[in-house]
Amino acid sequence: MYEVIATNAEGHLWGRFSLPANRPLIVGRAPECDISIPHDRYVSRKQATLQLQSDHVVVRRLMEATNPVFFQGKEIDVCRVEIGQCVVVGSTVLQVVALQENEAVQGLTPSAAEPAVSQVNFSSQALKKVRYPDAENRIEVLTHLPEVIAGARTEAELFVRLCKLLLRGIVNAEAAGIVELTRDDTVRLLHWDRRRETAGEFRPSRRLVQEALASSQPHSVLQVWDPQQTTQLDHTFTVDFDWASCTPVEGLSLQRTGFYLAGQRNLPVNETAFDLDRTHLDADVKFTELVSQIIGAVLKSRRWERQRSGLRQFFAPPILAALGDDLDTALLEPCECDVTVMFCDLRGFSQKAEGASDDLLGLLDRVSRALGVMTQQILSHGGVTGDFQGDATLGFWGWPFPSTDLAVNACRAALAIRCEFDSKRGRKDHPLSDFAMGIGLAHGRAVAGKIGTLEQVKVTVFGPVVNLASRLEGLTKQLRVPILLDDPTAQLIRQRLPPEIGRLRKLARVLPYGMDRPVVVHELLPGEKDYPLLSDSQIQTYELGVEKFIAGDWEEAYRCLHSMPSSDRAQDFLIHQIAMNNRQPPKDWDGTIRFPGK
Prior knowledge:
Layout: E1 2-7, E2 13-18, E3 25-28, E4 35-36, E5 48-52, E6 56-61, E7 69-71, E8 74-76, E9 78-82, E10 86-89, E11 92-98, E12 117-121, H1 124-128, H2 135-142, H3 145-151, H4 155-169, E13 173-181, E14 187-194, H5 206-213, E15 221-225, E16 243-249, E17 256-263, H6 271-312, H7 317-323, E18 335-347, H8 349-355, H9 360-380, E19 384-389, E20 392-397, H10 406-424, E21 436-451, E22 458-462, H11 464-479, E23 483-486, H12 487-494, E24 502-511, E25 519-526, H13 536-551, H14 554-562, H15 570-580, E26 593-594
Parallel strand pairs: 3-4, 21-23, 24-26
Antiparallel strand pairs: 1-2, 1-11, 3-5, 5-6, 6-9, 7-8, 7-10, 10-11, 12-15, 13-14, 13-17, 15-16, 16-17, 18-20, 18-21, 19-20, 21-22, 23-25, 24-25
Helix pairs in contact: 3-4, 9-10, 13-14, 14-15
């Protein structure tokens, strides 16, 4: 049997991998690799394969690998590696070794004949009663724990620092390691360290790791034995050690993880000696569990903060507060719900990009500010932001919590965005002075929810209503208005949005490109006080003109529309339609304007 021993640049072993005869092992940074090296930035996602032959290993550099593989100091694409020889990928050394027939695969499989072992399983309540005989030393070591955590830039560096701290705090320990129990109950040694560097390698007991980590309630386990009764089959149970412990650590990796310690008491194993020495050993286990709890709490806090930071860009503060400190993920699962969807797009971005080819960074900064205005107003009005769609922002209301005011809040956000852009127009010294925007709002059923992991969370909404909102945003250019609503949204806000905040104006019945059913569209306007260019009575006259237009009375429609002030550009679209047909509707007129393209 053969295996690969992986060591880092400092010579510390961090993994052993059995070489199967029927398939190659893949080496790389990607988590799906057989030998995954995520901590080595000089290793490609998939770097090389190791294929066992009869008495040697063939190493091949993969075509997609961007980093080299070295053998005997030379860069290679393929090479033959004999037993005992090494290849180097990044800063990781991979050595091929042969195992004796009676030696355990990966060094972590228990033997069939283990020595007599005394075992203690610790509960949290039992450890609370343990007293430290050397409390001052333990406290002094713990004062370095914040520095250990803060100074670790990578997971691998954190493992190194934690093992050294455990050896400082537990004077009886000769070796410390971090072990992982995978879903198929394979034990992996993630990192190990020994007090004496020349003492040899460290190979933990699979049985002890499983006792501590495999149960439904992981707990600390201590084992002691007589080293004179061990055999060469028992890797932890050697003359170097006469005790070992394993303590679970929550959140140190994606699998079940624990601190593994081993040392020598220099006492014979019998009931009396074991009882006399329990004071020190129990205190060692308690100290290990204390470090475990602190590390677990810090890592949980870090994950929580990363999750909150990831969600903060999508959710308004009230929604985050409602999700709670534990971030109830069930609330974020995709579900079908009533939503009001907003598409908000920057006008003329492509032309500005062409004209600002010598200052693209400056343009990017201005665009970022403009998108920031949109997202800020969406969030401040209780909405959720999805991904940016190029130079457009997607927002929606109605998820993760239903609301009777979702359409009203969406309209308030749209009006606030319009107000922000209008207030900056004409101010040459302002980055947003020459930006305009178009907004489409639609209401209906959709599926909304999170995709990805919580640490890399994204939220999205999809369904016909999303497509409609996008189409309406596009129609704002042709209808010459800033904000367009579909009829369901208009009906929801007609009685609920105070007229001093916002007003509605029916514009037309249209069939957007790519859609099967006509849509009655409305313009959302600010209140008359904020937008005196169009009075309430003028809006009534305009809507009468629209009704006449739909009904086919284009003479009366023209009269009503033509009475609008010249500053009102919405009239231009319908008047143009009427003028093109000599004020006479087509013979097949059904009141719907069809758009041949987006």
